[in-house]
Specification:
The structure holds two protein chains of two kinds.
Chain A (H helix, E strand, L loop, with lengths): L2 H14 L1 H16 L7 H21 L16 H21 L8 H20 L3 H20 L5 H32 L4 H9 L10 H19 L7 H8 L2 H27 L9 H30 L4 H23 L11 H27 L15 H4 L1 H15 L5 H17 L4 H31 L14 H19 L2 H15 L9 H9 L1
Helix pairs in contact in A: 2-3, 2-5, 3-4, 3-5, 4-5, 4-11, 4-14, 4-19, 4-20, 5-6, 5-11, 6-7, 6-11, 7-9, 7-10, 8-11, 9-11, 9-12, 10-13, 11-13, 11-14, 12-13, 12-18, 13-14, 13-17, 13-18, 14-16, 14-17, 14-19, 14-20, 16-18, 16-19, 17-18, 17-19
Chain B lengths: L1 H4 L1 H24 L29 H24 L1 H4 L1 H23 L7
Helix pairs in contact in B: 3-5
The chains are: A mainly alpha, B mainly alpha.
């Protein structure tokens, strides 16, 4: 490549990353000036929201062109564009929920760290390179430790943050180990080039160590499995969610899961997924088989454990934690299907498509559910246990309506967004079941459907409790949440309903995004100078 | 092939370990050893030791240690810079000003947040 080409690529990369850079600058300015300027938390929250809105505007205004996929560290494709837009919008929801959850003098650091989390999440979804992906993931984890510690400093919070800190570092090390082996497989760190090389593996170009692929697969799944809270890496989730403030439990249930699955699609599904071009390559098909089987086992274990343990929970945040574990299980079905894309172009992206659709709906319903709990929780009338919700319909009808919509969506009841998410995931499994892996994917789809039925019980139990039971205490007057909280919850609940009635636009978007993540464009033809260079070596 | 390329790292490792261990062994072999209960005591600048050695340090020391690192790194970076300053010119000066400004912002932040207040 000539220096001029390098210059063009880096200019394109910086232009495409403008929203993330803006967020990071805003965060650094806020966190530094926070030590010298004493203002109320409302101002800091407003500043953070302004920075996010400016980043969203930059994202929408930025040119759609992507730097050449085989040479750039970022892929500015449909997946990157749509998931960055989605993540930054949920960032606005989280800032609205968090605006009164932290003391004045800790607010600048809190909202600054929140901005860095979203900048990192946006980097992960656009990453086309192993190192950049890892930097993005760490840009999410490190401020998360700070966030967990800032708003409240009691022994439970300290236990939660310590647990999260050590396990998160451990999982980062596992992931890095896996990424190193993926690099060792081909000697490339560019994801598209890596996937292309693995898929065009033929007699002329043998991979030196096919066993590296298995090690890479296992360690990357383990490292990212922690982020998405998949069994057996789930055990921290209930303790951490229970010990941390509600708004951070919402953050932990959403951001790491979203970026974890996007990273799994970008790194594993695109690399080891079975693709038509590689049908005859024996080395790849065996690693693709193992990836499918491993993911399928993890999916069944995660769903079943999450849902059955959730049945016995008495604490609301623990219940939602196990529910989020179960949802990671449904998403893993999509990942298993993504390893087995059908031979026809129309089926080629079903699994990844399902994952992206599901993530979008999951954001609305889970943030909405945590948001209602946060809004109801007041010092005079704490809402921690399931029984605290009893008889809510009489005192707080609007909150009941919002929570009911979110819970029904989580349960996957038809006219709501969660139904379409589950449907698309199960559909992708059934579509793959028409191929050679018939029995495995039939088992997966059946396990998913059974689990959805189990899950409906504990979601519906909450709804019944709110509407039909008598309240335990009636002495304290109902407490009213401030307008940003109400706005955020209202947006989550109404969008859950709206996307349930009109799922078509989201379906188009998720299909487009999945295709862009998995497709491998033909690489540029080598220039005469490069050929001369290669033959000279 | 690869081994021989990295052999010098192994040799360096052996030398480094040997350099640390050799004086200890030499002392054992050469120096006269007369043990006594007085000699076993903890050395504390020549005065008689009082109290236990297992004392708790104040947690605040760690903040000062962290801030010390700010100046430590500054010195480490300033030395080579100063040594070759004449060859580097304006670019190096601007780079160093940026670096010092970053450190100063960090120090000012810690100061404003009360890290230097001894409780």
């Amino acid at each position: 490549m000539t220096p001029a080409e390098f210059l063009t690529i880096s200019r394109q990369t910086f232009l495409a990353l403008a929203p993330e850079i803006l967020l990071l600058i805003a965060a650094i300015v806020m966190m530094t000036s926070g030590a010298f300027v004493r203002r109320s938390r409302d101002l800091w929250a407003a500043l953070a929201a302004t920075a996010l809105i400016a980043a969203i505007a930059l994202l929408c205004l930025s040119p759609a062109g992507s730097p050449p996929p085989y040479a750039s560290v970022i892929a500015n494709d449909a997946l990157a564009a749509w998931s960055r837009l989605g993540l930054l919008l949920t960032g606005l929801i989280l800032i609205a929920l968090a605006h009164n959850q932290v003391d004045d003098h800790r607010a600048p650091e809190f909202f600054g760290a929140l901005l860095i989390v979203f900048a990192g999440a946006a980097c992960v979804t656009a990453a086309n390179e192993l190192i950049f992906l890892f930097v993005g993931l760490e840009l999410v984890s490190i401020p998360t430790y700070l966030l967990l510690y800032l708003p409240r400093r009691n022994p439970t919070t300290q236990e939660a943050v310590t647990k999260y800190f050590y396990l998160s570092i451990f999982s980062s090390a596992l992931l890095l180990f896996g990424l190193a082996y993926l690099y060792g497989l081909t000697g490339l760190s560019n994801l598209k080039a890596l996937a292309y090389l693995i898929h065009w593996n033929n007699a002329a170009l043998q991979l030196p160590q096919p066993t590296f692929a298995v090690i890479a697969l296992v360690f990357i799944l383990a490292g990212l499995g922690f982020r998405v809270a998949a069994v057996p890496f789930h055990f921290y989730a209930p303790d951490v969610y229970q010990g941390s403030p509600t708004v951070l439990a919402a953050l932990l249930a959403w951001v790491p899961k979203a970026i974890g699955f996007v990273a799994l699609v970008r790194v594993l599904a695109a690399t080891f997924g079975w693709q038509p071009v590689a049908a005859e390559v024996s080395g790849l098909s065996s690693i693709s088989d193992r990836a499918t089987l491993l993911t399928a086992i993890l999916a069944i274990a995660t769903m079943t454990l999450g849902n059955t343990v959730a049945l016995a929970q008495d604490n609301l945040k623990r219940l939602l934690a196990y529910s989020s574990i179960a949802h990671a299980g449904y998403l893993l079905i999509g990942l298993a299907a993504a390893f087995r894309n059908g031979p026809e172009a129309s089926q080629a992206v079903l699994g990844a498509d399902g994952i992206i659709f599901y993530l979008a709906t999951y954001a609305l319903m889970t943030l909405g559910a945590f948001g209602v709990i946060l809004a109801l929780d007041a010092p005079s009338r704490p809402v921690e246990r399931v029984d605290d919700l009893a008889g809510l319909a009489r005192t707080q009808p609007w909150a009941t309506l919002a929570l009911t919509l979110c819970l029904l969506s989580l349960a996957g009841i038809p006219p709501l967004a969660g139904f379409w998410g589950k449907l698309r995931i199960f559909q992708s499994a059934l579509e793959v079941a028409r191929g050679p892996d018939r029995s495995l994917f039939l088992i997966l789809a059946t396990a998913g459907a059974l689990n959805a039925a189990i899950a409906a019980y504990y979601y519906l139990r909450l709804i019944v409790l709110m509407i039909f039971r008598d309240p335990i205490t009636t002495d304290s007057p109902p407490h009213h949440a401030p307008w940003p909280t109400i706005l955020a919850i209202g947006a989550c609940a109404s969008l859950s309903l709206l996307l349930g009635i009109l799922p078509a636009p989201l379906a188009t978007v998720s299909r487009q995004a999945a295709r862009s993540a998995l497709e491998l464009p033909p690489p540029p033809a080598p220039t005469p100078a490069q050929i001369a260079h290669a033959t000279a070596n | 092939m690869i081994l021989s390329r990295y052999l010098f790292i192994g040799i360096l490792l052996l030398f480094a370990v040997g350099f640390a261990i050799a004086p200890l062994i030499l002392v054992r072999l050469v120096a006269p050893a007369r043990r006594g209960s007085f000699k076993q005591q903890t050395y504390e600048c020549g005065v008689v030791t009082t109290g236990e050695t297992w004392v708790r340090f104040r947690i605040q020391y760690y903040l000062f240690a962290l801030l010390f690192i700010v100046f430590d790194i500054e010195t480490v970076f300033l030395y080579p810079w100063a040594a070759s300053y004449l060859n580097l010119g304006w670019f190096a000066l601007i780079e160093m000003v940026v670096f010092l400004a970053l450190l100063a912002v960090g120090l000012a932040y810690a100061w404003a947040r009360g890290a230097l207040r001894w409780l």
